[in-house]
UniProtKB/TrEMBL annotation:
It comes from Anoxybacillus tengchongensis. Pathway: Amino-acid biosynthesis; L-methionine biosynthesis via salvage pathway; L-methionine from S-methyl-5-thio-alpha-D-ribose 1-phosphate: step 2/6. InterPro entries: Aldolase_II/adducin_N, Aldolase_II/adducin_N_sf, MethylthioRu-1-P_deHdtase_MtnB. Binds 1 zinc ion per subunit. The keyword Signal does not apply. Zn(2+) binds at H95, H97. This is Methylthioribulose-1-phosphate dehydratase. Transmembrane segments: none annotated. Its cofactor is Zn(2+). Keywords: Amino-acid biosynthesis, Lyase, Metal-binding, Methionine biosynthesis, Zinc. Belongs to the aldolase class II family. MtnB subfamily. The keyword Lyase applies.
Length: 202
């Protein structure tokens, strides 16, 4: 199971790396391995996530601490992943920093949310109606991770979702790696589209 989950997460990591979504060691990823007790594989902190090594991930428990002896440190943002796995049935969490998700988070930051409408891509989130709107909450980028995790947790209610952290990045989650990656790509598409549209409208 664990090896299979490792391979799944490694493949997602490879694909996101190919998109150049891990600039400057940013980004963290995780995948659930077991439910009782809760364990998940999470990226080791501070690594260049474009590189593929045998030390890319480590197993952590429900408190975000290593579940077995290791010299590796779990991602600095593991507590956000913990909130998702503890509150939902999500199976995979992806976090990336891109220029476009940062710009959107800053542009709409004071409103606390960005609402995407009239865009085919929102169907990726299961919204099929013509007048549907997809809302992504935007939270402040608290440096104190437990405070950030608490603000983040206020927006974690469903097995799938996305939250923008202002001038930091986006965290998305889904029932499995396929769904989480689909949501992340859709989010990035929408952010890129809105940035270009905002520029053209000026
Ligand atoms: C330049 S990366 C900044 C980090 O603090 C963080 O935001 C991040 O996404 C990566 O941290 P990590 O601890 O490697 O998971
Ligand atoms: Zn980050």
């Amino acid at each position: 199971m664990r090896q299979q989950k490792w391979a799944e997460l490694a493949e997602v990591k490879r694909e996101l790396a190919a998109r150049d979504w891990f600039m400057g060691t940013s980004g963290n990823l995780s995948i659930k391995v077991s439910d009782e007790p809760l364990t998940f594989l999470v990226t080791a902190s501070g690594k260049d996530k474009r590189k593929e090594t045998a030390e890319d991930f480590l197993l952590v428990g429900a408190d975000g601490q290593p579940a077995e002896a290791t010299h590796l440190k779990p991602s600095a943002e593991t507590l956000l992943h913990v909130e998702i796995y503890n509150k939902t049935n999500a199976g995979c969490v992806l976090h990336v920093h891109t220029v476009d998700n940062n710009i959107i988070s800053e542009w709409y930051g004071d409103e606390g949310e960005v609402i995407f409408t009239n865009q085919e891509m929102i169907k990726a989130f299961g919204l099929w109606e013509e007048d549907a709107a997809f809302r992504i909450p935007i939270i402040p980028n608290f440096a104190h991770i437990p405070t950030l995790a608490k603000a983040f947790a206020d927006h974690v209610h469903e097995d799938r979702g996305a939250v923008l952290i202002r001038n930091h990045g986006v965290t998305v989650w889904g029932k499995d790696a396929f769904e989480a990656k689909k949501f992340l790509e859709a989010c990035e598409f929408l952010c890129q589209y809105y940035v270009k549209l905002l520029l053209l409208k000026r």
